[in-house]
Every structure is written in structure tokens, then in C-alpha cells.
Write a structure and sequence with these properties.
The chain is built from four helices and six strands. A hairpin with a 6-residue loop joins strand 4 and strand 5. With about 140 residues, it is an alpha+beta fold. The strands form two sheets. It has a four-stranded mixed β-sheet with strand order 5-4-3-6.
């Protein structure tokens, strides 16, 4: 099973200690697929934490956090897409949350949010760049 899921065999042993039920106590250890699915879904659900209003999930801390200084910036990429970003008060790393700028009031909570428009992206153009080398790598 460890090869099937690309996990170490000790991970499977830990799952068995945490409540994953084998078919019987015999070796090799055999587990029903339905039981494994139930176990992994329950395990993920128990670890899940929701981000309420005014909170952004910090990946390194593995917890929803109120950004430092109660401040965040919403960078609107499109009409319905944006990123709420701030600084984690505990680890001082950037934290991000995808938001709909039109529904920002539901996510904002007590945060002081500055809304900015994202910079335009680089696009394909038919006009050559004035800094391009038109000599094709030859010295002039």
C-alpha cells in the first residue's frame, strides 16, 4: 500500500495506530479500499480549519491568522478575482487568501483593507521590443 500511495511504510504503520482498520490481524496487512477512503476523509476533515472573516490562513503556521496590524491589501486581478494578502503576526511571512473583490465586505471582518488593481501582465505583441537584438547574435 505504501508504494500505491507513494508514502513511506512507516506512514502506513502510523495510520494503523491512528485507527485505520485492517481486514484481519494476519500478515500481510490487507485494508479494504472503502475503509482507507473513510479513514483519509475523516483525517482530513478533522485537520481542516476554516478561515473566518478577518483571517488569512498561514501555511507555515498551519492556522488562520489575523494579519499583523489588522492590515491587509486586496489586489484585484479581475472583476471577480483577487488576492487578500497580509503579514503573519507570528512568523512574519506573507499570507494570502483568494477573494472576490465584489464580496470583500463578507471576508474583511475588522481588517483595514487597501484595494489596489493588479499590474497588467506581459502579453504577446507583434511589435518587436526596442531592446531586442535584431542582429541575431552577431557583433556589429
Amino acid at each position: 500500500m505504501s508504494r500505491l500511495f507513494a508514502v513511506h511504510k512507516n506512514t502506513v504503520r502510523n495510520w494503523l495506530r491512528q485507527g485505520l482498520a485492517p481486514i484481519d490481524g494476519q500478515r500481510p496487512t490487507v485494508i479494504r479500499g472503502v475503509e482507507l477512503r473513510r479513514f483519509l476523509i475523516d483525517r482530513r476533515a478533522s485537520a481542516r480549519q476554516t478561515c473566518g472573516p478577518g483571517r488569512i490562513y498561514c501555511l507555515p503556521c498551519r492556522a488562520p491568522k489575523v494579519p499583523a496590524g489588522n492590515m491587509a491589501e486586496c489586489i484585484a486581478v479581475g472583476e471577480a478575482t483577487g488576492t487578500l494578502q497580509g503579514i503573519c503576526p507570528d512568523c512574519d511571512r506573507m499570507i494570502y487568501r483568494r477573494v472576490n473583490p465584489q464580496k470583500l465586505d463578507m471576508v474583511r471582518g475588522e481588517l483595514d483593507v487597501t484595494v489596489t488593481q493588479a499590474r497588467p501582465r506581459i502579453e504577446e505583441t507583434l511589435r518587436p521590443n526596442v531592446n531586442c537584438d535584431s542582429a541575431g547574435g552577431r557583433d556589429r
